Each structure stands twice: as structure tokens, then as C-alpha cells.
Amino acid sequence: MEDRIEINGIWYVKEENKVQSSQNTPDLYDDYFTTFYEGAIWEDSNVLLEFSVLKPSKNEELEYDTISLKVVNKQTKKEEYWDNINFLLGIAKEEKIWIKSLNDSKLISSEYKKVIEYFLNDLYSEGYLSEENSMQ
User: Fold this and answer.
1) 40-67 pLDDT, tens digit each
2) Residue 131 needs a FRET pair 20 to 30 A away by CA distance; which of 10, 23, 86, 103 works?
3) pLDDT tens, 99-114?
């Protein structure tokens, strides 16, 4: 039996108040500008590693996942933003040419470069970092 309500002796079917989102949407809001992402962070008192995967959405300019790694040296307040999929995958797969490129970076110590290797390898093992993320 339907949920009913009596008002002034007349019975009505009780309806839930359904507000359409378009009525409350601010004029400036356009979901075209919404970007979805997945991410992972590794952090200690000296270094922050922030991995992100931007996902394709209604924004047609982004046809494939965009992967990046932000590396922050908290001691010097310097940071680098790496978004070369071949570089990040190469480090995750322990390919010598890419490990050498990583070792050329002056941003962090060799100890933290090893942390980056393990971090990216974990992301690769878990499927967050893969060839499928790239436009290749």
C-alpha cells in the first residue's frame, strides 16, 4: 500500500521532495571543468612524493590517463614535477637508462631516490602505474 497523507480531509499519495540539481546549480559551475583523479602519497619529514593519475572525463582534451609524480624536498623547499610516462614506468621496472636519469637529479639524496624506485614499483605492482595509462 502506498504511503498516504490526509490534508483537510483529502487523502494524497505522499511523495518525496525531489529537487533537480539544475535548479540549484550555480551559474559558474560547469562539470566540463571537473577532473577526476586517483593518487598515492608517500611522505616523511624530509620528502613528499605525490603520485596522481588524472582520469579522462567530459573534458575531451584529456583522452587518456595523465600520470605524474611531484617530488618535494621539504628541507630546501624545492620541488619537481615529473610527468614522462616512460621515465616513471622505466624507474618502476628498474630499467638502467631511467634509473641513471633518476640518479642525475640533484633534488634529493640517493637514499630517497631508492624510496622513489620502491614507491613507483609498488604503484606498478598495484596497477596504478601501467602502460595502459599512457597514450601509447
Assistant:
1) 999 999 999 999 988 776 655 555 678 8
2) 103
3) 999 999 999 999 999 9
The SS3 of residue 63 is coil
Residue type, 52: S
136: pLDDT strictly greater than 50: no
**Residue 66 to residue 54: CA distance in whole angstroms:** 5
- Pairing verdict, β 66-73 and 36-43: unpaired
Q: Which three cell numbers stand for residue 126?
A: 598495484
Beta partners for residue 73, in sequence order = 47, 78
Neighbouring C-beta atoms of residue 30, cutoff 10 Å = 10
Contacts of 57 (CB under 8 A, 6+ apart): 34, 35, 36
d(CA 87, CA 71): 14
88: buried, middle or exposed (CB in 10 Å: 19+, 13-18, 0-12)?
Answer: buried
| Domain ranges, ordered by start, for the chain | 36-133
Rounded to two decimals, the pTM is 0.70
- The set of residues, in sequence order, having a beta carbon less than 8 Å from that of 61 and lying 6+ positions away, is none
